[in-house]
Every structure is written in structure tokens, then in C-alpha cells.
Amino acid sequence: MILSLIAVLFGGFVLHLYNVYWLRPERLRRRLRTQGIVGPPPSFPFGNVAEMKRIELDERRARMDWGTTMHNYDSAVIPCFDLWRKEYGPLYMYTTGNTVTLYVARPDLVKEINLCTSLDLGKPMYLRKVHEPLFGNGILKSNGPIWAHQRKIISPQFYMDKVKAMVDLMVDSTEQMLRSWEDSLNSNGGGVTEIRVDDDLRILSSNVISRACFGSNHTKGNAIFLKLRSLQASMAKHNHLSLSPLWRSDQGHWKVSREIQSSILKLVQEHRESSAAMEKNLLQAMLESADGDLDPDVAEHFIVDNFKSIYFAGHETTAVVASWCLMLLALHPDWQTRARAEVVEICGGRPPNADSLNKLKTLTMIIQETLRLYPPGVSVAREALQDTKLGDIYLPKGANLFIPISTLHHDILIWGTDADSFNPLRFARGVSGACDVPHAYVPFGVGARSCLGQYFAMTEMKVVLSLLLAAFEFELSPSYRHSPVLRMIVQPEFGVSLLVKRCVHCDD
């Protein structure tokens, strides 16, 4: 009887796996096939994962050091999607585990997704699961009415008037970094020094977002963010190739997550009991919103999960884009000179303010072109929470979307034959005049869920780069190795090392 029971249980388990890994996804694939959508044939039990890993390994073996003018990172970061696009076109399906995903690089469909305001398109369940220790159910991963309510509370804190009030703290934080670079130059005889700028920019960006969030308690906020940075680095190794319905987060991730939660709640309590509660920082604004709209248990998770989300979105991505921007300016000294001349003319040797930042047109074009060439997010991912129609496609409930940002940003049919080249002038008439399909420019995401902190990020990058350009000149270090790599966002694998010297006009 025991053996019979074991056989029944084992048979039931096998049938369950067959249903989860094959029958359910096959039903989704069948509905897509009837619309003429094909793709690489999946195999039981993990779909196309084995082929994806093989393609990735082959690319890694074949790829030598990149040339610094090779700005299209698709073949290195997402080689399977790049290869399949050449075979199946800009619209095809693939399967990872039991997740069926529609790859969408058709500009007309991207436009439809961009214009979609329905809550029926949300963040994929598999990503919510793998990223739960880092983001919880915060605004980056929640769906439906919960997400809509969170965005309603948080988005006003990133409106233009609120961001303008943060310019001074951005300037102050950047000037601290400038002084450390000056010290490095002085210790090197005042000539040229080599600086790993991405490391310093991460520290700077962390300080900015910490001060914006916690005000006078930003030192303790920085300590929390260091733990978040460690957790993010640990979780970055998990991607769509390592997931299945049986995947569970590492216990070590949850341990660090609980430590971060405890630290944030302790800081919140200290804030409530101190005179800092009179400050108009993001923590105070979120506390006021949470206390008024949410019950205590929900409010606690709301505060913790969203500070984690805001840290990641407002710190890591901004620092990485600024690093890529300095790399490109070092490669293109003519644009570096033009941007510096603009900063000197408009700011006149004074720190930038909200008004002068709006006049930095050349610098804005350079940042926009950097975001085109090196968008920090490799893709936009969505899941159909209900049957959804997008243009001429019916997306069944449970199917996912994968929108390859860098592929769209390098498409010669959209941007012209110089799509892989650094040409900020394409943005001289703004995004709407930069290409034939402005909806295909999506560095901050698409649709209703586009990044609510994009004005904050653009303002911070303008402050940082304008101050750096006014003080220093940059050349690419001989030790720099160009190798974009995906670690949740696309980063320089070996950092960005630049040769830094004082700007000529600063010695006049």
C-alpha cells in the first residue's frame, strides 16, 4: 500500500508538472499561433531556456573586447533575442519555464502599449517573485488598484516644483565630490589623475536620493542604502534564465531584506519623534500620505517597499547613465567642448539653478543621446492580467510582453543609418523631432507605468554634469575596457576609468 501510495503521489506530481510546464503555456502559444505569431520551438519542461543559455555561452566565448565605438549592446547583453529577431522578425514568441512571452519590436505595437492606460497590463508575476526581497509590493512591482493608489501618493513628490526645490541639495552633494577630485589632483601634483568615475557617481547619487528622502537623517539613510546596494548586487545574478515556478528567493536575501526593513522603520520612528518631522522631505510627505490613507500594517509595508523602489530607481540608474555620458564625452571631445562652453556661458561660474538648467540645451541633447545609446533598462516587461487587445494582436491573459528598449533605440528604420553613432544633434528639435517614431524612444519605460522620477533623474544629471564640465576635462583612460553587462540594469562591467585634469578656463 505504501508503494502504491508513493506511485500515486509521484504520478500526480508528474501530471502537475506536465500541466504547469506544458499544457498551460501550450494553450497560450496556441492562441498566439492562430494569429500568425511563431518563434523558436519550445521543449519540455523549460521551454527555450536551454537554447537561450547555449546562445549566451556561445556569444560570451566568441566575443573579444569591444571597440569603444560599438554602442549597440544587444548582441552581448541579450544575444538570443537579437538572433531570433533576425530569424522571426520584430514580433515572435518564446517560452521560459511556463512563462510565454511575446517579443515586441514593432514600432506600431510599441506605440499602442505606450498609449495604453489600462490596469490590465501589469508587471510580470515571475519578476515580482524574484525581486520580492528587494522591492516587495512597492510601486515598481505592484499591479492594479494597489499600484494606482501608490502612484497617486508618490508621484506628486516628483512634480516639477518639488524637484526644483531639490536642486540646491544636488549641487551641494556634487560639490563634495568635486572637492574629493580636487584633492586627488593635488596629491598627484595638480596634473592628470585617473578616476573610476562610476564608483564616485554611485556614492554621489546615493547621497542625493538619501538627502531627498531623509533630509537631516541622510547619514543613516546612506547606511540603509548600502545594504540595499549589497542586496541588489547579490540578486542581479538571477534573470529570466534562472527562473521557474519552483524558484524561491535565497534565504540570505530575505535576511538582508528584513534587516533593511527594520532599519527603515527605526528611522521612521526616530523621524516621528524628532524635530525633523517639520522638514519637507520625501519621508515626511510619504508619512503624511500613508497616515491619512492607509491602516498601520499596510502603511508600514507601503513605506518600506517604496523606499526600496525609490532608492533603486533614483540612485543606480542615474549614476550609471551619468557614467556612460562621461565616457561618451571623453570619446567625443568636440561635444565635451561644446557642452562646457554652454555651461560657462549660461552659469557664468556660478552653481546651476532651476532656471539655468532649463537653458542647457546642448547638455540636454547629450543626455538624451546617451539614454538612447545606453538605456539602463534592457527591456520593458508586462503581463496581461486580462485578455487584452493591442493593435491587431489579441494578448491572452497570462501572456507576457518583452519590449527590447535598446533594439528600438538602434533601429536604422527609426533613427537612420547612423543609429549606432553618437549624434546629439538628432535631438535638436526634441524627442518628437529626433526620429520618425517618437514612441520608440523609451528610456524611462512605456505607458502609464513610465518612470515617475524621470524629471528628477534628468535634473540630477544636468546638475552633476554641468558642475563636472565646468571644473574638469576628461579623456578615456588606457585602462578602460568597454563591456556593457546586464546586472538588473546595463552597467559598465569593468567600470568607467577616465583621465581627469582641471579645466583650462579654471586656471585663468
TrEMBL record:
Subcellular location: Membrane
GO CC, alphabetical: membrane
Keywords: Heme, Iron, Membrane, Metal-binding, Monooxygenase, Oxidoreductase, Transmembrane, Transmembrane helix
Main localization, broad class: membrane
Binding residues annotated for heme, in chain numbering: 451
Record keyword Membrane present: yes
Cofactor field: heme
Pfam family, one: p450
Iron among keywords: yes
GO biological-process terms attached to the record: lipid metabolic process
PROSITE patterns from the UniProt entry: CYTOCHROME_P450
Single annotated GO MF: oxidoreductase activity, acting on paired donors, with incorporation or reduction of molecular oxygen
Record-annotated membrane-spanning stretches: 6-23
InterPro entries: Cyt_P450 (IPR001128), Cyt_P450_CS (IPR017972), Cyt_P450_E_grp-I (IPR002401), Cyt_P450_sf (IPR036396), Cytochrome_P450_Monooxygen (IPR050665)
Stated family: Belongs to the cytochrome P450 family.
Name of the protein: Cytochrome P450
